[in-house]
Design a protein that fits this description.
The complex is a heterodimer. Chain A is of the alpha+beta class. Chain A is built from 11 helices and 18 strands. By secondary structure, chain B is mainly β. The two termini of chain B are 22 Å apart.
C-alpha cells in the first residue's frame, strides 16, 4: 500500500494478524471469500503454505467452474452435443464418481446434474436476476430431469444418457477445497489452523489451550445467532437463502433449488451441519446442508438420520428452529430462542 | 485482538496486507479502492455500512448497517471486508 493512502485513511493500523500468535490470510476465489488462520507457526512458513493453498484453489476454480471455461464446462458442452468426452485426469473422474454417490445417498436432493435449471433461474451470471424464468421452461425441464445416474463413465470416456444434464459442482467445490487445504497443511506439518471458504469451515488442531470458536450467521440479522466450538478435525457448513438470492414481487428466490419442483426451496432460511472428523467430513460439511435445507419440513429429521448427520440446526421459514439433540447440547446461543420455537429432535 | 482504546471500531480490509480501523464514534465517509473501483463506506451514529459499491449485485449495500462486534459485510466482487471489532465476545470465524 502506498503512504498517501495510509495518511488519509488510517486512524489505527494493524497488520494482517489478529493477534501475535495467529497469522491470518484472505483471498477471493470460487466467487467467495477465503479466510485462513494459522496458529503459532513461523510466519515465513505460514506465508509459503498459504500460498500453496491459494494456488491450488485457483487451479480448482479453473478446473471446476460450471459456466466459465473449465474442464467441467468442456464436459457440459460435450454432453449438450451428445458426444463422448475423454477424461484423462483421474482427479476429475474421482470427483464425478463421488458426486454420483452423494446424489444417490441424498435421494437426489443434492443434484449436481441440474446446472441448466440453476442457469434458468439466473444463478449462472454475475448480473442480478430481475425476472422469474418462464413457467413453461421449468415444466418442460421437469418432463425429463437429469440425474447423476445418467452420467456414464467407462474407461476414461464420459457421456450422458440425458443431454440436458449439466454439471454444477457449486454445492461440492468448497468442501472439496477444504479437504485439499487440509492435505496441504498436514503435508507441510501445520497442525493448528482454521480454514473458512465462503462460510464452510474446517478446524485443524486448536489455538493454544482452547478450541477454535465460530459464530453461526443469523439468516435475517447482521450478526451471529449462536456459536459453537470446533474440536480438532471438525467442520461446519451452512446453506442459507440469504447468500445468493433475488427478490421479485417481494418474494425471495434463493439459489437453493429443489430438483423435484424446479423452484427455489422456500421452507427454510438456513440449514447448518456440524461434522466430526470422519471420512470425507469436509465434503460432507458442504454437501449435506443442501438436502437438509431443501427436504420437506417433516422429512428433514429422517433424512439427517439416514445420512448420519448427528449435529444439525435448521431455521425454518417461519423463524422456528429444528435442532438435533446433540447439537442443542453443544451450541451456545447468542439470542436464546423462545422455547415454543425450538424443536429438539 | 490488537490493543485499541475502549469502544467499538470498524475494521476495513481491502486485500492489502494492512487493515484500516476507524472508531464508530466519529461520522465519516471514506472511499476504499478495490479491483472494480471505489467502495464508499459510511460511519454515522455509531454504525457502519457500505453506502455505494461498483459491484453488480449490491448485496453489500443492501446489507445495511452493522454496529455489533463480529458483524461483518463482505463485498466479494470488489474484495472489501468490513467488520466490527472491539470489546465483547470474539469468534475465530463466522459460518454462513
Amino acid at each position: 500500500m502506498n503512504l498517501a493512502k495510509l495518511f488519509i485513511l488510517s486512524l489505527f493500523l494493524i497488520t494482517g494478524c489478529s493477534d501475535n500468535k495467529t497469522n491470518q490470510y484472505k483471498d477471493y476465489i470460487f466467487g467467495t471469500i477465503i479466510d485462513i488462520k494459522i496458529y503459532k507457526e513461523d510466519p515465513i512458513k505460514s506465508d509459503k503454505v498459504t500460498n500453496l493453498i491459494f494456488n491450488d484453489f485457483h487451479r480448482l476454480h479453473k478446473y471446476l467452474h460450471a459456466w466459465q471455461p473449465s474442464e467441467i464446462s468442456n464436459i457440459n458442452n460435450a454432453i449438450k452435443e451428445n458426444r463422448w468426452y475423454q477424461i484423462d485426469d483421474p482427479e476429475i473422474i474421482k470427483i464425478l464418481e463421488d458426486n454420483k454417490v452423494l446424489s444417490k445417498q441424498t435421494n437426489g436432493l443434492f443434484n449436481p446434474a441440474i446446472g441448466e435449471l440453476i442457469n434458468l433461474w439466473g444463478f449462472h451470471s454475475d448480473l442480478p436476476a430481475n425476472n422469474l424464468p418462464n413457467t413453461s421452461l421449468i415444466l418442460d425441464y421437469l418432463k425429463n430431469p437429469p440425474s447423476m445416474n445418467d452420467l456414464i463413465i467407462e474407461n476414461k470416456m464420459l457421456r450422458s444418457k440425458n443431454t440436458r444434464l449439466q454439471i454444477d459442482l457449486g454445492g461440492y467445490a468448497k468442501g472439496y477445497a477444504l479437504a485439499r487445504a487440509k492435505k496441504i497443511l498436514l503435508d507441510n506439518n501445520i497442525q493448528h489452523a482454521l480454514i473458512n471458504i465462503g462460510g464452510n469451515i474446517l478446524a485443524l488442531g486448536k489455538p493454544g489451550d482452547r478450541f477454535w470458536k465460530v459464530g453461526i450467521q443469523h439468516p435475517r440479522k447482521a450478526g451471529a445467532i449462536a456459536s459453537v466450538e470446533l474440536k480438532p478435525g471438525w467442520s461446519i457448513g451452512t446453506s442459507g437463502d440469504y447468500q445468493r438470492y433475488f427478490s421479485f414481487n417481494n418474494k425471495r428466490y434463493s439459489h437453493l433449488i429443489d430438483p423435484n419442483s424446479g423452484y427455489p426451496a422456500d421452507n427454510a432460511q438456513s440449514a447448518t451441519v456440524l461434522i466430526p472428523p470422519i471420512q470425507n467430513s469436509e465434503i460432507k460439511s458442504d454437501v449435506y446442508s443442501k438436502p437438509l435445507f431443501i427436504a420437506q419440513k417433516t422429512a428433514k429429521h429422517e433424512l439427517a438420520m439416514k445420512l448420519d448427520i448427528e449435529y444439525y440446526l435448521i431455521i425454518l421459514n417461519d423463524g422456528s428452529l429444528q435442532i438435533s439433540k446433540k447439537m442443542s447440547e453443544m451450541i451456545e446461543w447468542i439470542e436464546m430462542p423462545d422455547e415454543k420455537n425450538l424443536h429438539i429432535q | 485482538m490488537i490493543n485499541l482504546p475502549r469502544g467499538e471500531y470498524v475494521k476495513i480490509e481491502d486485500g492489502s496486507r494492512a487493515d484500516y480501523v476507524f472508531s464508530l464514534a466519529n461520522a465519516i465517509e471514506k472511499k476504499i479502492e478495490g479491483p472494480l473501483g471505489s467502495t464508499v463506506i459510511k460511519i454515522e451514529n455509531g454504525k457502519a455500512r457500505i453506502q455505494a459499491s461498483p459491484c453488480n449485485k449490491k448485496y453489500c449495500v443492501h446489507q445495511g448497517w452493522i454496529n455489533k462486534v463480529n458483524e461483518a459485510i463482505v463485498c466479494i466482487p470488489n474484495q472489501i471486508h468490513l467488520s466490527i471489532v472491539g470489546s465483547g465476545p470474539v469468534y475465530d470465524s463466522i459460518n454462513y
